[in-house]
Amino acid sequence: MHHSQIDSDIRKLIAEGTVLPAHPLALTAERQLDKTHQRALTRYYLDAGAGGLAVGVHTTQFAIRDVGLYRPVLELAAETAANWTKRPLAMVAGLAGPTKQALAEARTARDIGYHAGLLSLAAMKSASEDEIIAHCTAIAAEIPLVGFYLQPAVGGVLLSSGFWQRFAAIDNVIAIKIAPFNRYRTLDVLRGVAAAGALDRVALYTGNDDHILLDLMLPFDLRDKGVTTRTYFKGGLLGHWSVWTASAVKQFERCKAVRHKDSVPADLLALDARITDCNSAFFDVANNFHGCIAGCHEILRRQGLMQGLWCLDPNEGLSPGQKDEIDRVTREHADLSDDAFVAANLSKWLS
Fold first, then answer.
1. Could you report the average pLDDT of every consecutive run of 10 residues in the chain (351 residues)?
2. Which fold, 3-259?
3. pLDDT score of 70
4. Are the C-beta atoms of residues 203 and 17 closer than 8 Å to each other?
5. What are the boundaries of each domain within the chain?
C-alpha cells in the first residue's frame, strides 16, 4: 500500500496535523480484554474530537503480541470507529519487532484497514543504522510509515541526524513521531527531514511529553549553508492524550491558531508548563517512567472509562508515591481535565 492510495481527506488530515491519542488497553481483573470499556475508550476519543487513533502502540502495551491480542485489539478499534462516526479518521497501527514480525504486523494492519504504521525500533538496538534503514525500507513496501524516535528510557534507540535524513527519503514515509524527550535529538530529526527535502511530504508529530504545547505552537528555524528553513510540528501522537482528550483537542486548536503569527499569548506559552506538570505525574517521571501506562489508566479509572489499572504484566502498576502525585495534579490543574464531558457521555459510550 502506497500513501497515494490513502483516501485524500485522510491524507490531508495527517499532512495538516491532528490529535492522535495512543489507545490504551482495557482489561478485566482477570487480565482479559474488556471489550465494553475498550469500545467506550474508542468512542470517547472520537467524540472528544480526535482526528484518529494509534492502536497497538506502547500505550496499548506491546505485550498484546505475546497473548494473541494484536489483531483483535486492532480490529475492535477499527470496527468501533467505523460504526461510531463517518468523518475521516487517520488510523495508525503500532508495528514492532524484528523485520519478519514487523512485516507480518504491517500486513495485518493494512488488511484491517489501517492507513499507516508507527514503527517501533526497540527491537533493533544492536543493529547498525544501515541495517535499520533496510528494515524500515522493507516495512515501507507494505504500508505507509510513521517514524518513531522513542526515548531510550522506555526502549528507544539513539539515532543520528543522518539516519533521519535517510529515513525521510523513503518514499512511503508520511510522518514522524518525535519523542526523544530531548531538544538536541528533536532538532536532529528536524534537520534530517529538511536535508532530505521532505518537509512537504513528511508531517512532524510531537511525542515530546515534556514540551507538548511548545512543540505545537513554536516555529523551528533550520540553517543550512546560510539558508534558513522554517518549519512547524503539525500534530501530536501521544500517550498523554489518552486522558483528558477533549481538553487536549481544544489546546491543540489554540496552538494551531497561533502558528505563523508574530506573537503568541503569554498564557498559552505558560500553559505548556502546567501540561508538563500533569504529565510528570501521569507518566511517573520520578520513577523513570515505570508507571507511565498505569498512570494513564488511573485517570481513566477515576472517570469510569476503565474498571481498574490492570496491565498484562502483573508487575506493572503505579509506583510508590505516584498516586499522591496524580492526586496533586488533578487537584491543582482541575480546569485542564474533561471530567464533566466524560460524565455527561459515559453511559452512551458504555452502551
1. 95 98 98 98 98 97 97 98 98 97 98 98 92 97 96 81 98 97 95 96 97 97 93 98 98 96 95 98 96 97 98 96 98 98 98 97
2. TIM Barrel (3.20.20)
3. 98
4. yes
5. 3-259
Q: How far is CA 81 from the centre of its chain?
A: 17
Shortest CA distance to 198 belongs to which of 242, 147, 236, 271?
A: 147
CA dist list (Å): 282 to 50, 82, 322: 20, 30, 8
pTM greater than 0.90: yes
Angle at 60 between CA 29 and CA 346, to 5 degrees: 65
Instruction: Report residue 288 CA to chain centroid gap.
Output: 19
C-alpha cell of residue 257:
491558531
Query: Which residues partner with 226 through β-bridges?
Result: none
Task: State which H helix or E strand residue 146 sits in.
Answer: strand 145-150
Query: 92 forms bridges with which residues in the sheet?
Result: 54, 116
Task: Specify whether the CB–CB gap between 19 and 206 falls below 8 A.
Answer: no
How far is 123 from 130, CA to CA, in rounded Å? 15
Query: If you search the block for the grid coordinates 507538548, which residue do you land on?
Result: 212
CA–CA separation, 330 and 328 (whole Å)? 6
Task: Measure the CA–CA gap between 139 and 145, rounded to whole angstroms.
Answer: 8
Give the cell for residue 215.
512543540
The angle at the Cα of 194, spanning 192 to 199, to the nearest 5 degrees, equals: 120
Q: Cell numbers 490531508 label which residue?
A: 12
